[in-house]
């Protein structure tokens, strides 16, 4: 349903987000497809709706600076100067993440991208939701970013709980993404805030050279993959060939009786629900990786809906290390 962004409707939208639903909302850059950033199941639904064949890290939108402390473990002086000057506005900062940020928000990375939008509707929505909102652009995979509610409605109208119509986005291109993880700040994506403006405040910043440009954020080399070797299996019968003297970890899509003993088992979704499985995937991989097993057997899922992105991630995890 598409509604005008009145005070009353923003309240309703906030409630929908708080309760785990999806709301498309205007920001000064583009329309975002928002979910409660602290609810992994709600965030998984974003990927379901966008039909992205990969998981990629999402920007977390905040309305108050207090959230920055809760979502990160370190905010250095450069970050503070930039925030002082450019927030609210089209600048996204990548910082070390705290434990409250679910792994699906960051695609398993130890860092989180945060921004405070300057659009009044976006700010009011976050306030009403009483939680940070993670949101990519509100378009299906492969389509251009929406800058009007009409774009969103045409592309995703039947798939989301509410579209807040706040008119045309004033900037119309995405935010500039700046990583403050390494000693030298680095532009990961040029966007609505010019690099020159950033350099006036913190000095020279590196720009990711085009040779390193990623075709899709999901192809980022630093994307999380377990250190433990991962092997994908299709049917449970294949597990009977496992040598039990191996220190085995198993990642099951749904609950199953196993005939073999494993040191650590993770079940992504008791009933085999793809959205729940996606919400749990990264945390489960982390736990398996930390459990001290020497190999992880991961159950294949059907490649429909979120199954496509889940399999993309499992294949990446099972491919030999690139470097
Ligand atoms: P979009 O979802 O279209 O707004 O794009 C979000 C951008 O932020 C993408 O280019 C992501 O790769 C980038 N991004 C989000 N989180 C991180 C992170 N933790 N580290 C690096 N880049 C990130
Ligand atoms: Mg996008």
List the helices and strands and how they pair.
Blueprint (H helix, E strand, L loop, with lengths): L1 E3 L2 H12 L4 E3 L6 E5 L3 H11 L8 E3 L4 H6 L5 H10 L4 E6 L6 H4 L4 E5 L4 H10 L3 E2 L14 H8 L5 E4 L10 E4 L6 E4 L5 H8 L3 E2 L22 E4 L14 E5 L11 E4 L6 H17 L4 E5 L7 H12 L5
Parallel strand pairs: 1-8, 2-8, 4-6, 5-9, 10-11, 12-15, 13-14, 13-15
Antiparallel strand pairs: 2-3, 3-7, 4-7, 5-6, 9-10
Helix pairs in contact: 1-6, 2-9
Bound molecules: adenosine monophosphate (AMP) and magnesium ion.
Polypeptide structure, described:
- Helix content is 30%, strand content 18%.
- The chain is of the alpha/beta class.
- The protein has two domains: 2-207, DHBP synthase (Alpha-Beta Complex); 230-318, Rossmann fold (3-Layer(aba) Sandwich), CATH 3.40.50.
- Strands 1-8-2-3-7-4-6-5-9-10-11 form an eleven-stranded mixed sheet, with helices on both faces.
- The model has no long low-confidence stretch (mean pLDDT 91).
- The structure holds adenosine monophosphate and magnesium ion.
- The site of magnesium ion has 3 residues, from loops.
Q: Spatial order of the strands in the main sheet?
A: 1-8-2-3-7-4-6-5-9-10-11
Which kinds of small molecule does this entry bind, naming each only once? adenosine monophosphate, magnesium ion
Quaternary structure of the protein: single chain
**Beta-strand residue fraction:** 15-25%
Radius of gyration: 20 Å
- Mean pLDDT rating: 91
- Spell the H/E element sequence: EHEEHEHHEHEHEHEEEHEEEEHEH
Report the span from N to C terminus. 47 Å
Shape field = globular
Measured as a percent range, the helix fraction is 25-40%
What is the second-level CATH architecture of the largest domain?
Alpha-Beta Complex
Unreliably modeled segments: none
| Structure class | alpha/beta
Going by CATH, the homologous superfamily of the largest domain would be: DHBP synthase
Sheet with most strands: 11 strands, mixed
């Amino acid at each position: 349903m598409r509604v005008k962004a009145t005070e009353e409707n923003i309240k309703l939208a906030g409630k929908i987000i708080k309760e785990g639903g999806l709301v498309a909302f205007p920001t000064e850059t583009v329309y975002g497809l928002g979910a409660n950033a602290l609810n992994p199941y709600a965030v998984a639904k974003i990927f379901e709706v966008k039909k992205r064949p990969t998981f990629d890290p999402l920007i977390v939108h905040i309305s108050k600076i207090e959230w920055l402390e809760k979502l990160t473990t370190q905010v250095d002086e450069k970050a503070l100067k930039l925030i002082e000057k450019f927030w609210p506005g089209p600048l996204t900062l990548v910082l070390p993440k705290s434990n409250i940020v679910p792994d699906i928000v960051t695609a398993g990375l130890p860092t989180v991208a945060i921004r405070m939008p300057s659009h009044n509707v976006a700010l009011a929505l976050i306030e009403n939701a009483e939680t940070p909102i993670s949101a990519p652009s509100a378009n299906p995979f492969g389509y251009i970013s929406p800058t009007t509610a009409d774009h969103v409605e045409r592309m995703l109208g039947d798939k989301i709980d509410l579209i807040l119509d706040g008119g045309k986005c004033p900037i119309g291109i995405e935010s500039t993404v700046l990583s403050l993880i390494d000693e030298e700040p680095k532009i990961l994506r040029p966007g609505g805030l010019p690099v020159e403006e950033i350099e006036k405040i913190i000095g020279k910043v590196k720009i990711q050279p085009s040779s390193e440009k990623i075709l899709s954020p999901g192809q980022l080399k630093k994307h999380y993959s377990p250190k433990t070797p991962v092997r994908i299996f299709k049917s449970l019968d294949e597990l009977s060939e496992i040598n039990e003297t191996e220190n085995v970890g198993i990642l099951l899509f749904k609950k199953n009786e196993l005939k073999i003993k494993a040191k650590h088992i993770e079940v992504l979704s008791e009933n085999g629900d793809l959205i729940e499985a996606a919400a749990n995937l990264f945390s489960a991989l982390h736990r398996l990786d930390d459990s001290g097993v020497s190999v992880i057997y991961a159950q294949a899922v059907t490649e429909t809906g979120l199954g496509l992105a889940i399999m993309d991630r499992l294949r990446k995890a099972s491919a030999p290390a690139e470097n």
